Amino acid sequence: MFKVSRLLVILLLLIFGFFLVSGIGELPLFGNPSNPVHKQAGNYYLEHAEIEMESPNVVTAVLADYRAVDTLLETTVVLLAGFAVMLVLFSTGNISKFEEVVNSSYILKISTKLLIPPVQLFALYVLAHGHHSPGGGFQCGVILGSSLILQALVFGVKETLNKYPPKRIINVAIFGVLIFYSIGLICFIQGGNFLDYSQLQSILSTTESHTRSLGILFVEIGVSLTVMSVIYLMYIFLITKGEVNN
Amino acid sequence: MIELIVKILLISGTFFFLGTVVGLIRFPDFFTRVHAASKGDTLSSIMLLSGLAIYNLSENSFDSLLVSLKIVLIIAFVFIASPAAAHSLTEAGFLAGYRPWTNDLVDEKEKEEEK
Questions:
Q1: How far is B92 from chain A (nearest CA, A)?
Q2: What is the number of other CB atoms lying within 10 angstroms of the CB of residue B47?
């Protein structure tokens, strides 16, 4: 029985592999200017991003406005991945109580205390300056999450858990995704398409391009909250093997 | 004048980086290697970055001032983070059971002389 199922898996993999390999011949040549990639939406993005949403960084404009639904589902996937990690680690039934030995020296604690506020400030800078320089919600979330992990490394997981309880951080993660969805819904209710930020104009009362720019910023705030909390939660669950008091 | 300062900073920075690499490879044990890596690394990156910051100021505009300010912030970050990291690395090594290297040849000779 076991051998039959293994044979079936190998057969399935071979079939899918055949389809994948046979598709390689159909791909356009690398770097060819007449490729479909260079002929369709790309040029429009490059020409209109700065005019339509005051964002010299075209990547941010494409990520959070032109392809906002993609990013929306990406953020949802990040949240679900965090949930999956938590569920897997919860269901192991590992009874061994989590014990930790914190022997961080005075030098380490002081230098961490010196470093964490600038790191978090830099994360906010990356978030707010994402329109003009490399950056945005995902990067800001990663930097914020790493500042939380640094605290857990130096001051011990238990103290960090008291400061940032997992229950509350899970709520923050969900709240981040909720911000994204609710902004999309507000645009929808105002009479436009889902995630069409220009519909926020009557609420924010600025020019249309500035409204879109602000819409990108709001959405990125939600993304960064989600990414931060998911990274922190994954670290906490991996280090304690799911032994979190909930 | 500015160019001369920048040249001195950059050349001495690369020299100290070379010293770091030599120390990292040639020193006998864990602690001396971490010592060489952290000290030389910190000093030489501070020299290189300050050289870049000064060179960037020669343009005399607000934008270049901002960029120089950012480089100075990086220097401050490296100055705090790198020694702290080396400190925790050596502490972890000590707790894991590594002991500082002693010159066994000298010790053996002394023992032989005592005999």
A1: 9
A2: 21
> Is the separation of the CB atoms in B9 and B19 below 8 Å?
no
Most B CBs within 10 A among A104, A107, A109, A111, hence the mutation to make, goes to: A111
SS (H, E, C) B8-75: HHHHHHHHHHHHHHHHHHHCCCHHHHHHHHHHHHHHHHHHHHHHHHHHHHCCCCHHHHHHHHHHHHHH
Number of domains making up chain B: 1
Two tokens, residue A117: 């506020």
Q: Look at residue B105 in the predicted model and tell me its pLDDT.
A: 65
Show the domain range for B109. Answer: 2-114
Q: Give the model confidence (pLDDT) of A83-102 as tens digits.
A: 988 888 875 555 556 667 77
Q: Higher-confidence residue: A204 or B107?
A: A204
ipTM confidence: 0.73
* pLDDT for position B57: 87
Q: What is the pLDDT of residue A94?
A: 52
Name every chain B residue with its beta carbon within 8 A of the beta carbon of A104. 88
CA distances from A214 to A130, A172, A196, A221 (A): 11, 21, 12, 11
In this structure, what token pair is assigned to residue A222? 């939600």
Q: What is the DSSP letter of A98?
A: P
Q: B88–A118: do the CB atoms touch at under 8 Å?
A: no
Six-digit token string for A192 = 């436009």
Phi, psi of B35 (to 5 degrees): -60, -50
